[in-house]
Amino acid sequence: MDIVYGIMLDNGSGYNARCDSSLGLHVGDFCVIRKDFYLDYGQIVKQFDAPPPESTPAAPVEDDQRESGGTVFSAKKNEIYSIQRKATVVDQGKAHENQMRAKTALRITGQYVERLGLPMKLINAHYSYDGKLITVQFSAEGRVDFRELVKLLSQEFNTHIELRQIGVRDETAILGGIANCGRPLCCCQFLKDFASINVKMAKEQDLSLTPSTISGICGRLKCCLKYEHEGYLELEKTMPRRGELCECKDGRGRVIDRNLLTQKVTIQLDDSTHTVVCSASEVSVVYLDKYKVRGGAGQGDPARQEQSGAGDAKQQPAEGNAPQQRPARQGAPDGQNRPHGQPRKQGDRPQRPAGEQRPQNRQQQNSQNRPPRPPRQDGGNREGNREGGNREGGKPGNRPPRRPQQS
Q1: Which residue blocks in 19-126 are alpha helix, DSSP H?
Q2: Sheet of 121-127: strands edge to edge?
Q3: Is the pTM of this model over 0.85?
Q4: Is residue 384 part of a domain?
Q5: What is the pLDDT of residues 346-378, one digit of tens each?
């Protein structure tokens, strides 16, 4: 039965390899691995219970590029290789010799980088077990054209050269260091997969958003913000938020600070400027009446009853606060001289005589009430006068001047 192991190289990179259980390998043993066209040497750091699925060749990406003999090709991520044998004393001696040769290759590569003026930072170099491949890892802000560098290194070492660009997080995981908490970096100890991190996670954990607080040694957001995020969300469920009105044994006040890990809140009392620190279990959130959900009428909700009483008061004002009534209109027909505010009775409106039609609009109503127009002195034939060209009967164009407007 085949067993899959996780292999770690001396340059910090790793991959998966499988072998038969008859070899009797355990975590911590060194072994020789068969890869594409060469042999490699590494240490077993993990044993998988179930074999992970083999992956297909990934698309070319910037952070994982290799170049061998001037040809760029994409790496195969999580590809499972085969373990040849368990390392012997001779294999370990040769591996130490390759480590010394890798330091020399890194120094020579740095000289060529300075000569070509390439914006890249060299991290380390790795010699394969049989010496057929040299892997150089570097970091840079953007893409780097290192084709000329590969040609020079191939002529210098007379072997295949692989240049691999990695990110700042991978660089920090390889170099190592001490975090702000005083412990070794998580990426060096147990954290191998870097997940996406955003500032929202820091806000939900009540952390200060200053870059020096939420950023790690690599200059990116701390990795602990991700794998501790779910725990902080569970602790936040039983804690009041900042600014909420709460009651404690010392009185009522608002929450100005809280500590999710210790489950304690700091409350500033309303009646004084003093602040008290209480446990979350000793504090109860106070919801004002205006934020409560109003129930139906007759359900015993005082806010609802208060509102309905206020509405009745508006509909039926008190006698002392009753508005003054307007006097009756003068000259109105009978039935319309009613005080302002009183409804019209059914018999107040005068009845229209039988056979009389209601005017369609106000213009028709005005025309009915307007007295008849007297006849025109010129015979009333306006059209005839227009045909003659002059209202006074003269020739066309001899119209009298217009009367000036009086100011």
Answers
A1: 89-116
A2: 121-127, 133-139, 160-165
A3: no
A4: no
A5: 555 566 666 666 655 656 556 566 666 766 665
